[in-house]
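Quick one: structure for this chain?
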Amino acid sequence: MLLKDKLAAQIPGLREDISSFVKAHGDHEISKVTIAQAYGGMRGVRAMVCDTSEVPPDKGLLVREIPIGDLAENLPEEIFFLLCTGDMPNKEELADLQKEYSARCEVPEYVWKVLEAMPKDSHPMCMFDTAILCMEKESKFRAAYDKGMKKTEYWEPMLEDSLDLLAKLPGIAAGVYRMRFGKGPRIAPKKDLDWGANFAHMMGLEDPKGTLADLMRLYLTLHCDHEGGNVSAHATHCIASALSDAYYAVSGGLNGLAGPLHGLANQECLGWVLQVHEKFGGVPSDDDLKQFAWDTLNSGKVIPGYGHAVLRVTDPRFTGFLQFGKKHMADDPIFAIVNKVYDIVPGVLKEHGKAKNPWPNVDAGSGALLYHYGLKEFSYYTVLFAISRAMGMCSQMIVSRAMGYSLERPKSLPTKVLKAQAGA
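Got it. Here's what it folds into:
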């Protein structure tokens, strides 16, 4: 496997580099923590290492120092290779990784039996996470660890588990979609299709021009990673730091992604756009949309999709979706509203004065594109997010195992102690 060979060549030098760096500069302070940050979810506290990606407030997502906008035309398989190694794969390496995915994509039959036994109205994310967790018996890391192995070899079975899992996720997600929403029997994968196109194929939505496959490739690429501190990435890292295998860790991280403050934003954004469409019977005028935005804010609500915890510029992932929409669905009234919102709402938020960032994040546009292609089951949208984000989770775990990063164990303090330290 060429990905494994490349990592095996890189890892010894990276370990030595990090070891020397920590030895020489381990006492250097990178962050101070306030009481407000301790109570505020540790926001802004620099206390983790993530080598796969970074999110500078003035630039947006960088994947191995490459702006995500520059990767919009790349396949998700290329992105995973990049996340793991820091290099884009050449043609041979890409073909080798795609061959690995194809060989590993079959979902065990017992997974479908477990899902079929669940309540018919189970949430799609619960079904998706359950499928991942019940495959834990397949873990090559756990089997190797139980037999006994060197710590320096932990990354190898983690890579194996990650490839096994990533190869199966499109089939699981498509099967959940068809089962949960009564779309008919499962559709078998096509071995000659890439990861994103195969997912679109197995969902069974009409795609005569192949543009839905293009959207899925784009969607999976743009959501691939978002440094290490977001809920899903952090939860995955914390679980994996205890040497839990990829099935336990990814399932746990995706449980966090299912929370309404993390993974549900795109459906909330689309819901607001659909309210606009319903109220005005189509695309509103600039003045009508501006007033609707003010009415939303004056009622004490926020305009979903605008603002970001870290970014202070337009999210380049939103720009990627906006460009795709302009190319493929410019006349769609729902997308036209998304485009008009982008023109109107930042000015309203600036005038309102309370938003730290008046610019759109990735979720402001992605839902409208899915809606255009007939994917109108809102509760499923987070599953799409989950397939993509699993690439970041897995690559971060592979790197962490390779570098020998430690068990995560921050120190907590009770309120009484904090009050005493603050002289309160």
